[in-house]
Amino acid sequence: MPVIPDQSSGHGLTDRSPVHPRDGIDLNADLGEGSIQGGGGVDERLLPWVSSVNIACGLHAGDPVTAAATIRLALAQGVALGAHPGWPDREGFGRKSQTHPPAETRAIVAYQLGALGALVQEAGGRLHHVKPHGALYHQALRDPAYAIPLVEVIVRFDPELWLYAPQPSVLATIAGAHGLRVAAEGFADRRYETDGTLTPRDRPDALIDDPEEALRQVTGIVREAIVVGRSGERIPCTALTIGLHGDGSQAVDLARRLAEGLRASGISIRAPV
User: Fold this and answer.
1) Among 32, 83, 147, 269, whose Cα sits 20 to 30 Å from the Cα of 1?
2) Does residue 116 belong to any structural domain of this protein?
3) Which Pfam families does the entry mention (predicted)?
4) What is the pLDDT of residues 32-82, one digit of tens each?
């Protein structure tokens, strides 16, 4: 069993990560999980308001044609391109936990990175980051049995890629130990528990639908490295990137309000470099 580096340093960044920003933040969104609807689809309307996107790789959602179209749209907007690999679970949208030995996890992730990477290359772009999806994301955050093979695949595929993951977490610690750049991730449209974890989705108050509340949450993360938890307590939360869920009922309005509000406060919207 590989040794897991100590996480007791709390919410700090890995050695390859820049210091916590107070004048800029990345806004990332999950795209390519449905079909592209020319001129009016949510993906296309989200792109002007975000600085990086996580594109579904075809196992939990999406398909090659949708991914290629999403890549072209993102490149036209100058948005950083990321892979969004998940478990093979279209029925459950990749949100159901699965059990796999390390070799299977590596194969599942490598397959998706290779497919999306080829589409990005064909479009003349370059992959910028990886953000796991759904249950794969949450299992890797806490369990080295999934974090280690995931990180190993990314390092072999392209060691210069960023990994988007909350800090502290098992995944972020292992990624840093392998030399990957980790962009600590916070969330605009999710509430937090006292221990810094996200409120489970099965709770009725797990999601933030009010753009003004989401803006206050993100501003607090950027300016103070603090988030107000569901019960009202102030919780440390360092982030270089803020995740938005493109499948939310008000995804576009939320992204627009965040981008406009942050810029009005002197906070730029930019992908990690």
Assistant:
1) 83
2) yes
3) LamB_YcsF
4) 997 544 445 788 899 999 999 999 999 999 999 999 999 999 999 999 999
